Amino acid sequence: MTTYNSDTLFKEFKPQIEQTSRSWFIWFGFFICCFIFGVVGFIRQLTGGHIVTGMRDNVVWGVYIVNFIFFMGISYAGALISGVLHLFRTGWRKPIIRMVELITVISLVIGPVFILFCVGRFERIPYLFIYPRIQSPIMWDVIAILTDLVGCIIFVYLSYIEDLALLRDRSSELKIPKWRKKLYKWFSLGYKSTPSQVKRLIFSRNIMAAMIIAIAIIVYSVLAWIFGVTLQPGWHSTIFGPYFVIAAVYSGTGVLIIVMYLFRRMNHLENYIKKQHFVNIAVLLFIIGAFYGYFTFADYLTKWYGSVKMDKELIDKLFKDYYWEFIVANYVGVLVPMIIIAFPKLRTINNITIGAIITIFALWMNRYLIVVPTLETPYLPIQDIRPDWVKYKATWVEWSLTLAGVSVYFILFMIASKLAPIISISEMVHQDHKHVPDEPVQIL
Amino acid sequence: MEDTNKDKPNSRRKFLQLGLGLGAVSVATAVAGKALAAGPEGGEKSAPSASGEKVKVLTTDGKVVEVDAAQLSLAKASGKFVSPSESHIGIPGRKFVMVIDLSKCKNARKCIEACQEGHYLPKDHEWMKVFLMQDANTTAPYWFPKPCFHCDNPLCVSVCPVGATYKRSDGIVLVDTDRCIGCKFCMTGCPYSARVFNWNKPEVEYPSDMKYSPERAVPQKEGTVGKCVFCADKLRKGELPRCVAACPMGVLYFGDILEDSVTNGTETVRFSELIRNRAGYRHLENLGNMPSVYYLPPVDRQFPVDSGYDDLKPELKERFKNIPYIKNTKLKKP
Questions:
Q1: Is CATH 3.30.70.20 what the domain over B86-296 is classified as, yes or no?
Q2: Between B183, B193, B289, which is nearest A119 by CB?
Q3: Residues B207-226: pLDDT tens digits?
Q4: Which residues of B201-224 are buried (b: 16+ CB within 10 A; e: fewer)?
């Protein structure tokens, strides 16, 4: 059993927030370029109108909404995982918990931005607050997302306070600009680890951890109901709420593995994030993947087995026009990661990460298959000769903004890892219970 | 302008001979009642002197009564501007309904043209669409004109987050494009594909003095949703919707379900009888949206389906290339 003390950890992680390597700048520059590309796309959409996107009267929601669901899903997964790990005092969470929390907030900041790209008049977004109609599932979503955003920011912020206080106390040893030292001073809120402060902080963090678990489930269900409440074939399904939640956790767990992998390599955290962490998260991925596969199967089986005309048309379309996408999203995306994790020989860090990448890609595709083919299968046939009216094809504008969204994800992570250590020092030092070892528990 | 000759007696008589249920019946009601002054929009107080010319109109209880022609103009409301907020209030005592006789439609597309002209729509925006339907390979094809159904349980209205689309007391569902944020949720909510999005700035000329009212929905605005408005502006004036007036085959009947009468411009009939005798139905009744548009099945057809196809421009023919009937008869290589 390893016990850490804050002094050694501080010295160990100090260089990570003091120095910035050349490769960091290169990647940062690369992502900034991608972001600028997105800005160009956005300007094109602003000047040219939404006609520059692939969306048309039948497929009124495209890649933007897919991205929105995707990023929100990652965020909710982060909330669920970090909340659960925190509440259950899972010892091995310590080195990775901050990454999970960052996933929560960063995805939650990016996701809703895609809604702004999707709405025809984004300058009228304030109308949501001026003329709200609570009957609309979009209003449920607005309320839920804002609650979630506030909740997650508080949750993550609370987890930062102790480290910020440590950085403030030892800022004289840090070779960093003055404004950053000031930042630590302000945001540590005068935390001095007095017994009453410690007690209050622990209490607040527990409350927030429990709350964000509940909020995460509610928010993603509400998001699913935006589709579920309509009468469209493929969307009008009672399973959508829980299905979306499971799919969200699945994709979010995949993102966590990738984030772990990247920071482990970038910041040389091999001593902290060990293979067992990957395996444990992978076991989580396996279980959730099984649920996801089961839900997907249940949803499509009931649609396929009966003979409702529109359901049949949709299923036919999925297996004809979207054959490969369907295979990737619902077969490869479930089976390959599960096989990798199931066999101990395959269970290496690299393989698990590859499995996670497949998961994420498949889940994005899954959302695409939920949104687009349904809209291409309206009750009244599409009798139109304009090809883009019949079949949706995203344009470079939509892809540029998608790329920009992913880039911002990396940019925010890179910045966050420079502001404070990506491994929570205070978390590593604290003993939850005396008998709980800090070494990862071996599940498999 | 379409309204320039509205006060000439000739056009007024013609207007009545067309049997427009709305204005005429409301006047008849007023005659049957105590005062002459009760047009739907509260017309003039003093009755004009009788012209001696009598015109037959239908009352709500199905009686045909004679009314002096001079009194009939009362039903016409002044064509005053209806602001977006005023447009939320339906025409009092009305509940509009449309009946579409599928046995008469031959895809003349006059309804679409009149609609696009009247609402200054781009040519690719069809608020009224005419589908060629063939429900199964073994069933007969038929032309299927489809406006907005102005449902009594409209999902589009339920899901709108800002109240930009609304249901009025007279049954009409409108869109306020000054309020619409363009989220398109209503478009995914509507199971009848009734809504059209303005993906770019509509490239149409419209009178510059025309003030925006959701009742006429001119001009359409980029980034917002448009759809059939049952020509609420025309209804205010006691006139028929543009598509109904334009249909050369008398396919479209329009009227008031409370008065139990509908007219296609040449004949005025009782709504309940028409639906009963001709086995009227609503499209996709199982979805529970309760449309205000009824269909009469395509039996005893007046035209073969081909007559609506053969004279079409090639690009319009192309639309129906997936219909089994067209594939088997028109596109089959010899």
A1: yes
A2: B183
A3: 888 889 999 998 899 999 99
A4: ebebeeeeeeebbbbbbbbbbbbb
